[in-house]
Hints:
Blueprint: E1 18-20, H1 38-53, E2 57-61, H2 67-81, H3 85-88, E3 101-103, E4 120-125, H4 141-166, E5 188-194, H5 207-211, E6 214-220, E7 225-230, E8 239-243, E9 263-264, E10 273-277, H6 279-284, E11 292-297, H7 301-304, E12 308-315, E13 322-323, H8 327-333, E14 342-343, H9 344-360
Parallel strand pairs: 1-2
Antiparallel strand pairs: 2-10, 3-4, 4-5, 5-12, 6-11, 7-10, 7-12, 8-9, 8-11, 13-14
Amino acid sequence: VASAPRAPVAGDMPSLPTVDFSAFMSDEGVVVGDEPTAAQLSCAARINETCRDDTGFLYMTNFGITDEDVADAFSKSAALFALGNDQKAKLNPYDPVTNLGFSAFASEALNARRPADLREGFKYKNKDVFDNVMRGTPAGFAETCEGFYRKCLAAARRIAVACALALELPSDDSRFFERNFKVVDQCTLQFLHFPPVAAAADAAVNDDDIATQLRVGEHTDFGMVTLLFHDSVVNGAGLQVKKAATDQVGGAAGGEFDGDEWTEAPGRGGATAVVNTGALMARWTNDEWRATAHRVVAGPPEVASRDRYSIAFFFDPDKDAIIETHPACLARTGREARYAPISARDFVMMKIMEMQKTASE
């Protein structure tokens, strides 16, 4: 039987490291193909330390997105999810083949060993590749999606360069990760709403019972890197993280139920993002940077009884990209490749279909 997730308790403090990314936002050093600056080397070393030795999660600041950008995105998100059920029925329904559209409440499950996730969502992708059907969305929502998507994508491209430096890849491979994002046909912006957990409002329910209710099951993200933003009210309370034992958690694999090794990772609000690596990064690095598992617990009544909002940008490689461990990572780890080459399309689609199948069972 899976162990119950621990709820955040009074006095829990965020213990994730903070990375100031400003060194990579200037057009100098490794960003433009020159030798990295001292500031870029220092920032990259901090990223490597976190991804190699710590949880693989960090807070990131100064990466080209403003507090105003985030506030506008959450304002539009709240308006979307405030629509009535009749109005939501008119939204473009989620299609797992395109990975686009509106996902109804409890229609997905990121871990096969857990019930459906207690959330609803809306996914938006590159408009140069996909037709984002925005019918029924609130005024200004489409424009906000496009603007926020472009800013996240620009930041993620520079993060890809920073990751190559952090992993000490050869200088002629400074764009090793970034060059797998030419078409940009898998990067996804997702708006998420977690309605109040009904039991939390019932004073007759024991707090321990509320604490065992998951809003999102244990899982690892599918791609390279995720940028996660939290609203300023609940501010991400309930997010827990840990380094995964393997390249992936969740889906058909289940796993990572140990309740004693999870780190609380509440948001910091505004334009501070929680950044983590995904399963494909573990494959690229031969587990030198292992995937990072996370989940959302309901938490105490003051958290569980409130609406919770988050916005995630998934930086997933192009469909035709072949994910194969970099030779430098093989040489450094001294191990044979743990993972066979796989296309980003096949891996991401496998995980998406697992998520849909699990929720329907």
